[in-house]
């Protein structure tokens, strides 16, 4: 397991979300890591608001079903309703104080964005929600970089944490750095977690995610979750988890936040990979590079 030993963290400016982690394409700079490894990324979106009771929640569920015809529907409780699109790996929930969307795969969120906004908008209008206590978007990426767990851990010392030799003066035997930073960037608060997983750790982390059973079309025959699990545990991976959110905002910020948080998550993830791979040569003269 990772030790969680963290040295002085780089500032947001040093991570370079606005200047690093992008690839020039004509006149446009495009982040690439989440897009390239879309099949190894989980996404989560949610809005929290003042509780609704009585018929508003069930009316919202009925309206979503009537307008958008999701293939799967499940009542979790009198005030919670689940909708599923197993073929595209999307799950949507309506509760008395929250709407939540979850996907297996970055493409499942990114390419269906307008449809997702339509479903969410239907529920918000029916429940008469005009403001959010919190709106958030999170990506969890299991990125294969053609490096072993040990090699990535070695690079994290110095790239994200204090150099290994300095940390050893405080505590011997640190092997698995885990970086956690909370802050604000691009008008959004964020919580960033960066670490390296071996295959067993990646499996444990993925299987701890909520609602995985809801992605299955048939609980006896469907392999959707197993296929995703097998892919993210195919090799050791670099794990980047970024949670972006705003507090106490008007509901009309929905579309802007969704699009800006998506772009920021891509920039942040790409910048973390570039920082890891930009460390100078090690003692044996090797320079590690991602498989991109």
Helices and strands in order, then pairings?
Blueprint: H1 12-15, E1 23-25, E2 28-30, H2 33-36, E3 41-48, H3 56-68, E4 72-77, E5 80-85, E6 90-95, E7 98-104, H4 106-110, H5 113-126, E8 131-143, H6 149-159, H7 164-168, E9 178-185, E10 188-197, H8 199-207, H9 224-232, E11 237-250, H10 254-277
Helix pairs in contact: 3-5
Proportion of strand residues: 25-35%
Low-confidence stretches: 1-30, 279-292
Q: Mind summarizing the main beta sheet?
A: 9 strands, antiparallel
Structural shape: globular
Structural class: alpha+beta
Helix content: 25-40%
By DSSP, the count of extended strands is: 11
Distance between the termini: 27 Å
Radius of gyration, Cα only, in angstroms? 20 Å
Q: Report the order of strands and helices.
A: HEEHEHEEEEHHEHHEEHHEH
Tally the helices: 10
Provide the residue-averaged pLDDT.
85
Describe the structure.
- A hairpin with a 2-residue loop joins β4 (72-77) and β5.
- The longest helix has 24 residues, at 254-277.
- The strands form two sheets. The chain has a nine-stranded antiparallel sheet with strand order 4-5-6-7-3-8-11-10-9, sandwiched between helices.
- Mean pLDDT is 85; it is low at 1-30 and 279-292.
- The chain has a domain at 25-141 and 202-277.
- The chain is 34% helix and 29% strand.
- It is built from ten helices and eleven strands.
- By secondary structure, the protein is an alpha+beta fold.
- It has helices at residues 12-15, 33-36, 56-68, 106-110, 113-126, 149-159, 164-168, 199-207, 224-232, 254-277; strands at residues 23-25, 28-30, 41-48, 72-77, 80-85, 90-95, 98-104, 131-143, 178-185, 188-197, 237-250.
